Every structure is written in structure tokens, then in C-alpha cells.
Automatic annotation (TrEMBL):
Originating organism: Exserohilum turcicum (strain 28A) (Northern leaf blight fungus)
Classification lineage: Eukaryota, Fungi, Dikarya, Ascomycota, Pezizomycotina
Protein name according to UniProt: Xylanolytic transcriptional activator regulatory domain-containing protein
InterPro entries referenced in this protein's UniProt entry, alphabetically: Trans_reg_galc (IPR053230), XnlR_reg_dom (IPR007219)
GO MF term (any one): zinc ion binding
Parts forming coiled coils: none
Segments of this protein annotated with the region Disordered: 56-105
Alphabetical GO biological process terms: DNA-templated transcription
Positions of the Xylanolytic transcriptional activator regulatory domain: 335-408
Length: 790
């Protein structure tokens, strides 16, 4: 017996020095020995046959998913050490943290350690940033030959014995790792929250662009963003057109501060889109910061009292637009904070409840509904991107879904069809297939749900998936319960797709052969992105984490993981084979296209690191799809800083992960080197920094005007001298509210106080001009090169 014990100990030591196939064989042997000693003599033979029948890792690539499962082992033990019942499968004895969404209820790093980590903040398990971090950890452990088998995982439950075991299990897995230093979220993020948003010109909040430029920026916003996020009503466009015409004619008109702030945020989003898409009216890459700064100062977000003021609709809409702006420029953490403020303003105004005010007109109610669901959609997208919780769950909202009519129909209540009485709402926490269909029980009905209705419904499903699969409370659920939630969410998502999308856009294997309407394409991106979130928990080596799971459980895990990879392929097929700027910014969801691409890339790289073990065909197309998405990031990087950062993170993982990550990127690296050689390393030495802005933004206002914050134009009595009689053109009375501008000292630090809010007390124009420094630097390099070659 002593010799047997020594041999077993030796075998266990050797398991750390063999490959994965050898580790699996050693683990199978230990399982068979344990079972044989635990069972009565009469049943040892059957147990040994069962253990020997389990496929080893060598055969995992060729056997069907059903062979990966293990029957319930009579007499085996649970994680807590108590005997398991004969009919209790292994998936019922491990918690949700067994899947890829492990540690959802724990924080494993100090997020307050540095300014960079504080700017990035908490990133949850459903974020592709965490997926990339997990991948980098796996690759680091694999290179150090850390064990991947028999790692501890806590049991389910919310009792006093189950909860303490979860941190112990985490520490056990961490101690098994060979990494000396924990990889941080900041090492894998591609968002830009740690970058400073500053400008080098004095900002006059009351200045506006010329009428022609204003029209172009406004149209950029309305044509590319408004349909998906109708935060402001269409009547706002009529007001803007009237105002812009008066500006052309230099007629007197007055704008209230919140209306002006909303307009500047629209300009900021339009300017950033114009820069990304490189349109004919393309704006400089930093002009959007001017408009954002004006809006912040007009709203008073650089003053503490604004957060204590009573909310009104313009304030709700302005903060919602500011959140959308931060989202599109890649500052996801700031966007999440601001949309939370906007939603709390909306909650204070009761926008989350059904409005039964008998005095409210129908179009007014519909505008409130659309504003609420726009904020909901922004928050859901941000929570999916960085993994943070939502402000309010769907169960606590009774606001109905939007009607899905044109503004002309909404403006006239008598034109609303009778079927509005059938519209679904969110009074209950679940959405059945019938309610998913919303307005029509017959697909042949010519009146189908609108894009906005479909957009809202899939956002509701996505938020439900985030809550059920990734919230901290799911750690107390068993893996068996998680599998049921995944199946339920998948059925709900497919029911939505059956009504909202054509079959060619929902199939995981079809290829788009013709042009697709933009609205359908936007919904298709949402559909496959939601599929990734629902199926992602199964994309890991669950067969190594769950002992004694049933065949049905193993089959479900493998099929769901395969569907996750196929959903990533589907996202890839939505994009043309050759990167196209016009498609990216005029057809796709350009405000989150990098998020969608990185979701798919993270899934591909994870599956490659697993040896394509979940794919029946061996995953032959994974490397091809990954390279296609990398080329898209490379193409978008020319104007999109988020894409550039994502490209760098991806290339770094592939280069450091070789040979485990088997993707040939030599051609991409050679192209990158060629592009670098063709680009000049130094900027124009004779161009001032302020010259990059449009002419009307390059000059600072006179010092006499800085104290009041008004430019010379605003002091012109011809334009702005008729305040009491000049706001007649604003069609919506909500914008006539004018709150007092409180000038109080700050008590606490404010995140909206920026250095570019201060006047330029140095009137020397050369103060901002970096040309002399660049020239001196360039000259120094030439002198150095001449010295080393002599």
C-alpha cells in the first residue's frame, strides 16, 4: 500500500511536466482509482468501466459532443465533501462561476491604485475587455506550464457555508497559477478613458459655427444617429432650421442655454462622425471637443449645484446626448456615469412609468417614451461593453414600448391605428413570444413593427441576459440553472429575430449576397452581439471544471460554445471582405463598431487557445475571420483612435501568444511597416497648433468679454437685443424653461472642471505653437545621426 501511495504521488508530480493530453490521461487514472476505492466491491467493476469509457483529450477533437459527458457517479462526493445522490449530476453541484463568467461577484485587483486604473474603472465579466484579459492570463499560464486541471470551484447557494467558499476557490485557482503578477484590466482595455479631453484654444460657450457648417453637422447627426437614439424629438429639427435661417439673414433671435447646449452636443457628435467618415464636410479631429466644452459650460456641469437642481426634459436630453457623445469617442466609463445621471433625472421625472395624464397630448407622451427608451438603449450598450450594472431593471418599468410611427402620425392622435391597444409593455419581467411580436400576430400583416420597436425589444433582451448571466447574484446559482437561463434567453432572442429580421441575417452560416437596408443591418449586429453574450459562458473548458456532469450537460455546453463562435463568424460576414470606410460609417453601427469587432475577435482568439475543441470542423475558418477583422481595425485606425488602440491590443496578444495562437500575421505586419515608412514622422513645422481648427475657432474672444463669457457677436444688439420677443420660433414650450445660472464656489472636486475652461491670460500666440520645439528636436536628431556616421 505504501508503494502504491508513493507511485501515485510521483504520478501527480509528473503531471505538471507533461502536455495537456498527458494531464488528461493522468486525471482519468486518478478518477478511476478514487471511484474504485469509494464504491462497494460489487460495483467497482462497473465504475471502472465507466471511468475507462470517458474520452481522453486526444479524442476530443474527433468525438461527438455527447461523448464528452459523464454519467452521475453513485457515491462520488460533492465539492463540500458530502455524498452525492445517485441521480444528481455534476452540473448541479458547481456554481455559475464554473463557466467563463467566473468571479462575477468578486474584485481581484485594486482599481484605486493609479489614475489609469481609476479612469478605466471596474470592467465586468461580460465585457470583451475581460475576455481579452482572461485570454492573456491563460496564455501566460500556458507558457509557464501552470496546471489547468482539478482547480477548485465553489458550490452554489447563498448560505453561510457556500458564500465563504467562493473567495477560497478563487485564491486556490490563483495560487495554482505560475504568474508572479496579476494581469490588470488596464493591460487589455482599448477604450480611451485615461486620455485627456483638452483643447488649446479658449472656448466661448455662446459662439456657434457658420450657418452652412452648422447645417452640415446637424444633418450628420440626424442621418446617422437619430433613428437609433431619438433622444430629441423631430420638432427639434424644425426649430434648428428656423434658427439657422435667421442666422443667415442676421435676424435677431435668442437661444436659451439648455437648447443651445443640446445643439452643441448635436454638433459635437456630427463633427466627430464627419471626422471619422472623412466626408466632404469633414471636421478636424478635435473640433468636436470645442462643441462638447461649450455644452458642458452651458449646462453648468462644471458647477456642483446642477446635480442638485430639479430635472426638466431638456436637462435629461442634454445629459443623454453627452453620454452618447462620450460613447462614440471611446470614453466608455464617462459615458456610463453620465447616462446614469440622465436616467436618474428621468426617474425623478417619472419617465419609467406609464403616463396616464389626461391633459398630456399623445405626441408629448410619445416623445417622453422615446427619450426614455433611447437612454435605456445607450445604457444597455454601455453595460454590454464594459460590464457594469444598469441603473434600473426592466421589472421596475411600466413605460410602454414606443409606437413606431412617424412623427407626423404621432403629432395627430386621430391617425394612430387601433392596434396600439395591443402594444406590449414591461409590467412583467418576462417577454413571451406573443408579446415579442408586439403589434401584429400575422407576419403577412402589412403593418410590421418599426425599427425603433425592434431596437428597444432586443435591448430589453440584452439587459435581461446581462442580469441573468453576469450579475454578482448569479454566483449563487448552479451551473444547471445557468444552462436553463441560457436556453430561455436563446429562445426569446430567436423569437424576436423571427419577427424582426429576414432569415439570411439570422442564420449563423449564410452569406449576404446583396445590399441590405441599413436598419436591418443595425438590428443584425445587435442580434449576433446579443447571441455572443448569451452563449459566452459556455466558451471555456467546462469538461475540466465539472466532474461527473451528465451527457446532456456536456452536449449543451459544447453546442452553445459552438454557437458562440458561429455568432462571431456571423458578425464577420456582416462586414464586406474588403474594409470600406463608407460602409463602416454609413451602414454599420459606427458608434459601437469597434465593440462588435472586438467581441468577435476575443471569441476567436479564445477558441484558438482552446485548440478549436468546440468546433466540429476543427475551426478552419477562425484564423481567416480573425485576420479579416484585424484588417478592418487597421483600416479604421486612420481616423478612429479606439480602433487603433484595439488593433494594437489584438496584435500584441497574437504576437506574444504564439505558437498557441496560430495566426499568420506576417502580411499584416509587412503592410503596417510599409505604411509607417510612407508617413512622415514629424508634423508641419510651420503650422501653429491652433491652425488645425476652423477659422472661426482660431481667435480667442477679447479680454473684455471673457469675464461675462460672451463673444462680440452676442453683444451685437442687432442680433441679440430683442430677448423678450425673439423666442417665438421655438415650437416646443419645453425649451422655454430658463433656470438661473448659479455662480457658487465649488465645495468638492468636479469631474467636469477642465483646464480648457479657463481664459488664456497669455496673449502670445506663439505660446501654443509647438513648431520651434519640433524644429529643435528635428535638428538635434540630424546632428546626432551625422556624429554617429562620421
Amino acid at each position: 500500500m505504501a508503494q502504491n501511495t508513493q507511485l501515485l504521488a510521483l504520478l501527480r508530480d509528473l503531471s505538471a511536466h507533461v502536455d495537456e493530453a498527458g494531464q488528461e490521461r493522468i486525471d482519468d487514472f486518478f478518477d478511476s482509482v478514487c471511484i474504485a476505492h469509494m464504491l462497494p466491491k460489487a460495483r467497482r467493476a462497473d465504475a471502472l468501466k465507466l471511468a475507462k469509457g470517458r474520452p481522453s483529450a486526444v479524442h476530443h477533437f474527433h468525438q461527438p459532443a455527447s461523448s464528452l459527458g459523464k454519467r452521475s457517479w453513485p457515491g462520488s462526493t460533492t465539492t463540500q465533501g458530502s455524498p452525492r445522490l445517485v441521480d444528481r449530476p455534476g452540473e448541479a453541484d458547481v456554481s455559475d462561476s464554473t463557466g467563463s463568467n467566473e468571479n462575477a461577484d468578486l474584485l481581484d485587483e485594486d482599481l484605486l491604485r493609479s489614475s489609469h486604473s481609476r479612469a478605466t474603472g471596474y470592467v465586468g465579466q461580460n465585457s470583451e475587455v475581460q475576455w481579452l484579459r482572461s485570454l492573456k492570463t491563460q496564455l501566460a499560464n500556458a507558457s509557464l506550464r501552470a496546471p489547468t486541471h482539478n482547480l477548485p470551484y465553489a458550490p452554489p447557494g447563498s448560505g453561510s457555508d457556500a458564500i465563504p467558499q467562493r473567495p477560497y476557490a478563487l485564491h486556490g485557482r490563483r495560487s495554482a497559477s505560475s504568474l508572479n503578477d496579476l494581469l490588470h484590466v488596464t493591460d487589455s482595455t482599448f477604450y480611451l478613458d485615461s486620455d485627456h479631453l483638452d483643447v488649446d484654444v479658449v472656448v466661448d460657450p455662446y459662439k456657434l459655427p457658420p450657418p452652412d457648417e452648422a447645417k452640415l453637422l446637424f444633418d450628420c447627426y440626424m442621418n446617422t444617429v437619430h433613428t437609433s437614439f431619438p433622444i430629441v424629438p423631430r420638432a427639434f429639427q424644425d426649430d434648428f432650421n428656423e434658427f439657422n435661417n435667421r442666422m443667415r439673414q442676421r435676424q435677431p433671435c435668442d437661444l436659451f442655454q439648455k437648447w443651445r447646449a443640446i445643439l452643441n452636443l448635436v454638433f459635437a457628435i456630427g463633427a466627430y462622425f464627419s471626422h471619422l467618415a472623412q466626408t466632404q464636410s469633414q471636421a478636424d479631429g478635435r473640433v468636436h471637443l470645442i462643441y462638447m466644452t461649450r455644452a458642458i459650460r452651458l449646462l453648468g456641469l462644471d458647477k456642483a449645484p446642477i446635480f442638485l437642481s430639479a430635472p426638466d426634459l431638456p436637462l435629461i436630453q442634454a445629459t443623454g446626448l453627452l453620454s452618447l457623445y462620450y460613447l462614440i469617442i471611446g470614453h466608455a466609463s464617462k459615458a456610463w456615469v453620465i447616462v446614469g445621471i440622465s436616467l436618474r433625472f428621468a426617474l425623478a421625472a417619472g419617465l419609467h412609468l406609464r403616463n396616464e395624464d389626461p391633459n398630456a397630448k399623445q405626441h408629448r407622451k410619445e416623445h417622453l417614451v422615446q427619450t426614455w427608451w433611447s437612454l435605456h438603449a445607450i445604457e444597455t450598450l454601455l453595460c454590454a461593453s464594459i460590464g457594469r450594472p444598469c441603473v434600473i431593471s426592466n421589472d421596475e418599468c411600466t413605460v410602454p414600448l414606443p409606437h413606431g410611427f412617424s412623427d407626423e402620425q404621432v403629432g395627430n392622435a386621430s391617425q394612430l391605428p387601433v392596434k396600439t391597444a395591443k402594444k406590449a409593455n414591461l409590467t412583467s419581467g418576462s417577454i413571451s413570444r406573443k408579446s415579442m411580436q408586439g403589434y401584429s400576430d400575422d407576419r403577412d400583416d402589412p403593418w410590421t413593427p418599426s425599427f425603433l420597436v425592434a431596437r428597444v425589444k432586443i435591448a430589453v433582451i440584452m439587459q435581461k441576459a446581462l442580469t441573468k448571466l453576469y450579475s454578482p447574484r448569479t454566483a449563487s446559482s448552479s451551473w444547471e440553472c445557468v444552462q436553463k437561463d441560457i436556453a430561455s434567453l436563446a429562445a426569446e432572442l430567436n423569437a424576436w429575430a423571427a419577427v424582426s429580421l429576414p432569415e439570411e441575417l439570422t442564420s449563423l452560416h449564410s452569406t449576404i449576397q446583396h445590399a441590405v437596408p441599413r436598419e436591418q443591418l443595425l438590428l443584425a449586429f445587435n442580434y449576433h452581439s446579443t447571441w455572443l453574450l448569451i452563449s459566452r459562458p459556455c466558451l471555456c473548458r467546462l469538461e475540466r471544471r465539472i466532474r461527473g456532469q451528465s451527457n446532456d450537460s456536456a452536449t449543451f455546453n459544447n453546442n452553445t460554445a459552438e454557437a458562440c463562435v458561429e455568432a462571431a463568424h456571423a458578425i464577420t460576414r456582416l462586414l464586406p471582405d474588403q474594409p470600406d470606410t463608407a460602409f463602416a460609417y454609413h451602414q454599420s453601427p459606427w458608434w459601437c463598431i469597434v465593440h462588435n469587432i472586438m467581441q468577435a475577435i476575443a471569441v476567436f482568439l479564445l477558441e484558438i487557445s482552446f485548440g478549436e475543441s468546440h468546433m466540429k470542423n476543427g475551426g478552419k475558418e477562425i484564423a481567416k475571420s480573425t485576420k479579416k477583422l484585424i484588417r478592418w481595425l487597421q483600416h479604421l485606425s486612420s481616423t478612429n483612435t479606439v480602433a487603433e488602440r484595439a488593433y494594437q491590443v489584438t496584435m500584441d496578444i497574437i504576437k506574444t501568444g504564439a505558437p498557441r495562437i496560430r495566426i499568420d500575421i506576417s502580411d499584416i505586419l509587412s503592410e503596417e511597416a510599409g505604411d509607417s515608412d510612407r508617413s512622415h514622422p514629424f508634423p508641419d513645422m510651420h503650422t501653429s497648433a491652433t491652425d488645425s481648427y476652423p477659422p472661426h475657432m482660431q481667435e480667442a474672444p477679447p479680454m473684455s468679454d471673457l469675464g461675462m463669457g460672451f463673444s462680440g457677436d452676442l453683444n451685437n444688439p442687432l442680433l441679440f437685443g430683442q430677448q423678450a420677443h425673439s423666442h417665438w420660433f421655438l415650437s416646443d414650450p419645453q425649451y422655454l424653461m430658463l433656470d438661473p445660472d448659479l455662480q457658487l464656489p465649488l465645495t468638492f472636486g468636479n469631474p467636469f472642471m477642465t483646464n480648457f475652461d479657463q481664459p488664456d491670460i497669455l496673449q502670445d500666440t506663439n505660446f501654443y505653437d509647438p513648431a520651434p520645439y519640433y524644429y529643435y528636436y528635428y535638428y538635434s536628431i540630424r546632428v546626432y545621426l551625422q556624429s554617429v556616421t562620421m
